[in-house]
Amino acid sequence: MRVGVFDSGLGGLTIIQAITKIFKGAEIFYIADTKFAPYGEKTQEQILQHSLDIVDYLLKTHQIDALIVACNTATSAAIKELRERFPSLIVIGTEPGIKPAIEATLSGKVGVMATPATLNGNKYQLLADELSCSNSVELIEQACPGLVEQIENGKTKEDKTVSMLHDWLKPMHENEVDTIVLGCTHYPLVSDTIKEIMGAHVKLIETGCAIAQRLKALSEEQGHTNNGHLEINVFSTGKINKNMINEILENWKDGGEIMVRSND
Ligand code: DGL
After folding, report:
1. I want to staple 181 with a disulfide (CB 3.0 to 4.6 A). Which of 93, 112, 118, 238 is the partner?
2. What pTM value is reported for the model?
């Protein structure tokens, strides 16, 4: 089994981490599209084009059987087109976990942090309107421009990052939000700071485990036995912060066999 995974940068590694916990016997090819990061402040057309270029490369160079779009922003802009163009490929996208958040909230107030492109996309708007109306839950949305760059540059604990998070989380705090959707795969990398600001009682919703389970189920339907070791190859299209990769990998207990290649 050969699985292609991509994101604009390091964020999708939070999805890979969840995959390593339950998925075996496969080679993973992870592309961090750092040359064009961040995606969240680009147009839908630009994000679609970058996504198509990466999938083309993954198919031609690594002959992947499954694709995970480990990026909420690229899922919003490109998942429909990717499914139409590559019908024989298992294609799994990443969407903000509004449904689990609505199930988890007790206060009826849910915060959603995501990139501007994800929050403005039709896909998110439709899902949010439908779920929040039918469950009478108020969604307090917050775009976080600039946060992905801070994380890519390894500045997760820097004063500027903490102060950005303070400003964005203030309306959520004032509204007594008890659950926050991390609608960008980079944001779990600052979840400690979010918890410090909001308090430990606030639930943070990420989607890595659900994606890993979906990958396992869909690949088993196609005869994958889920045995043997997992090899993870990490590539980037531009410069990548290797210290950040090491920091992320250090937190993995069962990281498979990880080989990091990059071209900077
Ligand atoms: N990690 C991404 C996401 O899930 C993209 C962030 C970006 O490049 O702006 O949305």
Report:
1. 112
2. 0.95
